[in-house]
Structures are given as C-alpha cells and as structure tokens.
Design a protein that fits this description.
Elements (H helix, E strand, L loop, with lengths): L4 H4 L5 H14 L5 E2 L11 H10 L15 H15 L10 E6 L2 H12 L5 E6 L4 H8 L3 E6 L10 H7 L4 E7 L11 H12 L5 E5 L15 H4 L7 E6 L12 E6 H14 L5 H8 L6 H25 L14 E5 L20 H12 L1 E2 L1 E2 L8 E5 L4 H16 L1
Parallel strand pairs: 1-10, 3-4, 3-5, 5-6, 6-7
Antiparallel strand pairs: 2-8, 7-8, 9-12, 11-12
Length: 407
C-alpha cells in the first residue's frame, strides 16, 4: 500500500535498534548498562497516585473531556506557570489560554501544525531534541539549524541566531533546560536573546520548558519573557507532567499561548485526538502543584551525585577537555570527537565522517553500555547518556565508558 511522502521522509531512530540489541544481550546474560532512558525510574508521588485512584469512582473520569482540557485544570495551570516563572499574564495586553494535550510532544506537534505553512522556516538550536526537525518537516516547513559545541558548553551564539533569521522565519524553538545537553541557558543569555527577538517582531517563540523543575545546580532556569513580558504575545510555553511527576506514560502535556493560537490548536486537536486523558486531568486538577519541589528534592540529589561521578571519571582518565558541567534535566553529551578513541575509527586526521552510530554499537557489544548516538540530536561524533541510573551501577558504567574513550 502506498505511503505518503511526509512519512517516507521520516527516519526511524537508531535508538530503537540499539535498545532492541541491548535487550537481546541482557536476555543472553550479558551485563548491560542502559543509559538511554528519557524518563525518571521513580514512582510518581503518592498524593498524585491516590488522586487518580479516587477518580475511579466518578463517571466523568471515564468520559470525554473538553477538547482543550477541563476549564478548572487549565486555569490552575495558568496560575501555576505565573507563580513558578514569576510573571503575570493579566499585565500583558493579550488574552491567554491553555490547551491540554497528550504529552509535551503532542503539544509541540499541535503548535507547529497550527502555526506553519509550507516553506516557512523554524530555527532550532543544535543539539536539539530529536523530534523537532521531523515535526517541522512533516508540516512542509524547513528546519534551520544553529549549531553549538562542547567548547561553548552548548550555548548557541546569538550572532549565529541573528544570521539565521530570514523573511521566511516563522518561529524559533528554545529548549531550556535542554535535552540532550543537560544544561540551561543563563539569565544573561536569555536577556540578550529577548533583545534580539524584540528586533524581529514577526518571529514567534516556542519555549519548550518540559524540564523546568529539574535543575539541580543554581541558578534556576530563567526565561526571556521574565525580562520582556511583551514577548509573551508571540510566545508559546510548553510543559507537562512527564518529567516532573515521573509520569511519561500518562501522556499529559500542555501549552500556554495567546487565545487565537490556542483556538487554532484546539481545532486541530479536535480533529485528531480530541481531549487528553480525563482521569489524569481530573486528578491533576485536585493536585497541589506546590508539592512538586518536595517530591523532586531527593531526585535532584541523585542527579547531582551522578553528574559529579561523570566529572570525576572524566578527570581520572585525562578527558577534561571533553567534560562540561551539567545543570539540569538528566542528560550528558559525550563528545567522541576530542577523545583518543576516535583514532580507532577515523581513516585520516582530516576524516569528518560521523561515527556516532558505529561507536555506540561497539560500546554496547564490548562494554555493555547502551547510549543514544548524537546523530539523532544533530551533533556528529557524540552520544547522549542519561544520569538516572542507580549510583553504583552508574559509577561502573562511567568507569567502562571513560576507559573506552581513553583507549
């Protein structure tokens, strides 16, 4: 049967292939350290679980929700974002609304679908989350990459962003805290970015803040609209419960945007998925969002400890030139290009081939370490590791990894 060119253009992630191989090796008795996880291996808060259990008694929890989400939950989300970000939507000369969707990824797909026309350009900052370019291309728009590297701690140059803006630029996606780097942009950078956006009034901003709560080194994430509230008129904030409540499988995300865009998103969602999970929405409407910081405190301690293990192990093997300090989310980018192991793969010193996939395959087969090739994130000769593994297992995995990199 014929398939559309939109789907044919999509690439299946190499991560799925490596994960399948990791499972196969584990089933054969090999010790495998799976560092691919994009989710916290913790049980959600008891209070939240109890609220979902209580909702089982109500018929409404099993029926359709309004397409854009229950009104009381949407208002609660709006107020929580105001409080947690230190902003006041009522002081901006614009009306805002919330659309509750089936996860953060669905929210982003909705936003792009409601915003983009064929030929529009969307600036993405590399390394980027793997779904950005795929979703942009699915909308027949064009992703424009602005690259960064470990040498600038993956902070993109504002001059490069400025050069990337054209008459076709419809939007720019900012992801801070960032997947896959585990960093967030500084207040100073965000203020300068805000100034740049004021110079380009036709460029919309999609602020993907799904890891907002998961910072484990101060200062906490800061956003351009906190300095320039007027930019909220063309900003879409994306967040959800997947990361902060360790609830990736419950599929509940949301976006906050001016009402006219939310209306368009609601029309699109109504014709595709309808409303998000009613039971989870109703539980969340009764949940005390202020408890999130309490829940995340020991998780942040765990992530901070594992980030320190990365630093120690890289320094022990004299790999300090490839190390940088993570601050948030739960990822770290391993830069193969500056490591001695590249000599095993390069055919000459001028060889610029991306060996990410090959190196990750060898790591899995020889060391039992499963990580995600950087190719999927727009960064050659690199890989993403997750910091969520239990401490002792993570320490052994890092010992194996740095020994391999230094070989």
């Amino acid at each position: 049967m014929h398939t559309s060119s939109r789907v044919k253009d999509m690439q299946e992630s190499i991560t799925l292939k490596l994960n399948a191989r990791a499972v196969e090796l584990a089933e054969k008795g090999k010790t495998v350290f799976n560092l691919t996880a994009g989710q916290l291996p913790f049980r959600p808060m008891n209070e939240f679980v109890d609220l979902m259990r209580n909702e089982l008694n109500f018929l409404k929890s099993f029926q359709y929700s309004p397409v854009v989400g229950f009104p009381d939950l949407r208002q609660k989300i709006l107020k929580y974002v105001e409080t947690s970000r230190g902003i006041d939507f009522s002081k901006v000369n614009e009306s805002f609304d919330v659309v509750v969707s089936n996860g953060g990824k669905h929210a982003i797909a909705n936003i792009l679908g409601a915003m983009l026309d064929p030929g529009d350009e969307v600036i993405i900052l590399s390394p980027y989350w793997i779904s950005y370019p795929a979703l942009i291309k699915f909308c027949r728009a064009v992703p424009i990459e602005v690259k960064s590297s470990v040498f600038d701690v993956f902070v993109p140059s504002l001059d490069d962003i400025k050069r990337a803006i054209s008459a076709k630029t419809k939007a720019i996606i900012i992801n801070s805290p960032n997947n896959p780097t585990g960093t967030h942009y500084s207040k100073e950078w965000m203020i300068e970015f805000g100034k740049l956006m004021l110079e380009h009034p036709d460029v919309n901003i999609i602020s993907d803040e799904i890891y907002f709560e998961l910072y484990y080194f101060d200062p906490k994430p800061f956003y351009f609209y906190q300095e320039f509230p007027e930019l909220l008129k063309r900003t879409v904030i994306v967040d959800g419960i997947s990361k902060t409540l360790a609830s990736t499988g419950l599929r509940l995300g949301y976006c906050i945007a001016p009402k006219n865009l939310c209306k368009a998103i609601g029309i699109l969602q109504g014709q595709t998925t309808s409303g998000a999970n009613s039971l989870v929405q109703r539980a969340l409407a009764n949940f005390d969002f202020e408890k999130i910081s309490e829940y995340l405190a020991p998780i942040k301690t765990h992530l901070r400890a594992n980030s320190e293990i990365v630093r120690e192990k890289f320094r022990e093997k004299n790999l300090a030139q490839t190390w940088y300090q993570t601050l948030s989310a739960f990822y770290y980018i391993v830069d193969f290009s500056q490591s001695p192991v590249m000599n095993k793969f390069r055919t000459s010193k001028d060889d610029q081939t991306d060996y990410s996939e090959k190196i990750c395959e060898v790591l899995l087969e020889e060391q039992g370490i499963a990580i995600v090739p950087g190719t999927d994130f727009g960064l050659a000769n690199s890989a993403r590791i997750s910091l969520v593994l239990e401490k002792e297992a993570f320490k052994e995995a890092m010992e194996r990894l740095v020994t391999f990199l230094a070989s």
